[in-house]
Amino acid sequence: MQAASQTPTQACKIAALIPAYREAMAIADVVNRTIPHVDLVLVVDDGSPDDTARLAKEAGAEVIVHAVNQGKGAAMKTGMKTLTERGFDYILLLDGDGQHAPEEIPRFTAPARDGSAYVVVGNRFENIKGMPIVRRFINSLMSRIISNACGVRIPDTQCGFRLVRSSLVTYIMGSSDHFDFETEMLLLASRAGFTIQSVPVSTIYGAEKTKIRPVQDTIKFIKLMRRWQRQSATVPAGAAAELREAAVKE
Question: Is the pTM of this model over 0.90?
Answer without folding.
Answer: no
